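Hi R.,

Here's the chain you asked about this morning:
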Amino acid sequence: MSEQRGEQGITVAIRDEYIELYKLLKLANLAASGGEAKYMISEGLVRVNGEVDTRKRRKTRVGDTVEYEGGLVMVVSAVGEG
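And here is the predicted structure, written out as tokens:
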């Protein structure tokens, strides 16, 4: 898994089929810890594909977008990367 920041937001590349939402927030450095990520999600502060989602272990997949405080995280495939 890797993370890149750009003008369009943060891109997180995953190798597996999915990454749990709270882990994605940690990986993208939007949360300092898993506990903080879970709190943000449970409070309804996180949107997945434009809709609030309070499932901490929601499976985010390639093509999903996650928003938090105006920041955007895009999940892309790492398959085929060096």
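One quick note: The chain is about 20% helix and 40% strand.

Cheers,
M.
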